[in-house]
Amino acid sequence: MVTIRDVAAKAGVSAATVSRIINGKGQATPETIARVHAVIKEMGYKPNVVARSLTSRQSNTIALLVPTISNPFFPELARGVEDSANSYGLNIFLCNTDDEREKVRNYLISLRDRYVDGVIVNSLNVTEEDLEELHSHGIPTVTLDRTFSSHKFSSIGVKHREGARLATSHLIDIGCKRIGIIRGPEDDSTAIQRLWGYRDCVKNFDWFDQSWIALGDFSVKSGYLCMKELFQRHPDIDGVYAANDLMAIGLLKAAHEWGRKVPDELAIVGFDGIDMTQYTNPPISTVKQPAYEMGRMAIEELLRLKKLDEHNWYAKKQELDVEFILRESSMR
Amino acid sequence: MVTIRDVAAKAGVSAATVSRIINGKGQATPETIARVHAVIKEMGYKPNVVARSLTSRQSNTIALLVPTISNPFFPELARGVEDSANSYGLNIFLCNTDDEREKVRNYLISLRDRYVDGVIVNSLNVTEEDLEELHSHGIPTVTLDRTFSSHKFSSIGVKHREGARLATSHLIDIGCKRIGIIRGPEDDSTAIQRLWGYRDCVKNFDWFDQSWIALGDFSVKSGYLCMKELFQRHPDIDGVYAANDLMAIGLLKAAHEWGRKVPDELAIVGFDGIDMTQYTNPPISTVKQPAYEMGRMAIEELLRLKKLDEHNWYAKKQELDVEFILRESSMR
DNA sequence: AATCCTTACGTAACCGTTTTCCAAAAGCGT
DNA sequence: ACGCTTTTGGAAAACGGTTACGTAAGGATT
After folding, report:
1. Using one digit for the tens of pLDDT, what is the confidence trace for A164-190?
2. What burial letters (b/e) apply to A159-171, b meaning 16+ CB within 10 Å?
3. Which UniProt keywords apply (chains A, B) (predicted)?
4. Domain ranges of chain A
5. Does position A310 have pLDDT exceeding 90, yes or no?
6. Which CATH superfamily groups domain A4-47?
7. Which stretches in chain B have pLDDT values below 70?
8. Inter-chain residue contact A82 with B75, CB threshold 8 Å
9. Of residues 124 to 163 in chain A, which lie within 7 A of strand D by their beta carbon?
10. Residue contact B249–A279, C-beta within 8 A
């Protein structure tokens, strides 16, 4: 391996000079610069990133924490992050947390130890203290779909509640009289907002009560099981809003097994806008989140913070619009 | 940050001694060991992983290259790798290559520079020279579903051809008279093997010729488009084997739009065994690959190589069985 | 000509480990 | 008590960079 000292020797300068030239710091005569660059090229020198990390406490890497890559929404998000990061020459560390506190902790520690340059968090079980801790080490963060009251943390979210309202009111508009919801986990703030959006639209109907709410966990299977539950409780149900697309897909299967025609006897709307919803039978109406765009923005925000001095960090809270996509599952 | 020297000072020994004790190398009196450990605990000392990497040329990290995490098969595989890696205290670096040579190259270089301890490759566009290069830097590799003739590289694969035969012969068994295939990309060896398996079963029928083969790219959309193509070419088609599940899902939609009843007028079988196939309407028969298990085995193999001296590396080529799963899409 | 500023670059310390080599201490046999 | 081997642990040099500081040379200013 060729080191900076090898280059220095061959170019007849000191290692410090080579370092400065590489990093464009301090001055040097045009001749020296040219000579050093020539030698670098000739010897095929490449700075050792690990050694660099040791002194600079940076790693050219940013981390993305997601709850699971098994839900296609997250890969889409990850691509946004990755493409954008690559365009800046940054590597990304994709971390699957399964929303388990233990895994989150481990990742966070390991990431800090590796001097990651920033962390994008889209995962439950990350506390304000965790972010605080990263900040105290000079590591900026951006949360996705998680906001903390503190003004210190940047976040990017979408209008979940509004999206849920779009979905639910659409069901009402097409004539559904009894609308259920398959909600997401209780400790998930996005799930809660999506539930609220639904509530906003149905709370004044006299048929509405808690029993129209089924508790899912965002998996296909839970959508399937919850739908069966709803059928049992309310044979007269004629519309369902699933708080994410995977559950909507499971739900579709349950409807089929239960012998309900979609959309005529049961209208369905999902949430997320994953690709698969176009290909189900029938295709599922959904509220599309700009996943890719969110990923892109997260990187931008991280870089904005990086440029600032740690003490001047001021958080930005951004909220993106969602888009309702009408498909057969709710066309009457 | 507390360093090894801080610990040394407080314990009244040298940094070298602390290092030796931590790593269990060389000897020390039980008292010294106990004292050092006590101080480590008291001060909350944790070795700096970056500094460690610099000297040891290791990083406690292994990388996994996959073509895309958007195909649910790969997340499943990734989980196997990750869970297993975690149980050994290893971090994993998940790399999305999109099967682009450029990205593969960049990742490989970046990974080598970061002293990854091993690389698991399940991606096209990785050449024998790439692996050779990693080996020359002491980095062991395991390929997944890619085998090179050289005996130097360990690999884990599944019996694609056999799986394709299972699928195709099943279609024949249930009475299909005209069976098409939606194959995968031409440069993908697994796609080729799966095609062969199909050919093995149909080549002797007099109806068979090239026109029963449609060229897909393993995406849902391509399954959809290819099926339309097949319908146009062969209105009498009554069975299709899709070389992966995503394409089978796309195909299902095409069948529906074309007004063909599945399975009665068109029987369908996929490949991979992704979860989603259980939830389509109808559920899709498939050939299940032990994705999780493959991931697990890849780590095991990597660790086996790590323990050996680089010069003693002898490759193992393992091939796992697939399992045919019968579902409604091909039940008559 | 003396003074001061700038520029260009070298020296050496540093980042936090590991590891090689070596010396002191301890154990052992006689 | 004396050599001889084995333990135990320290000093210092790696690993491959960055950077604070210093200095010599050259130019401008008075």
Report:
1. 999 999 999 999 999 999 999 999 999
2. bbbbbbbbbbbbb
3. DNA-binding, Transcription, Transcription regulation
4. 4-47, 56-157+291-320, 160-289+325-330
5. no
6. lambda repressor-like DNA-binding domains (1.10.260.40)
7. none
8. no
9. none
10. yes
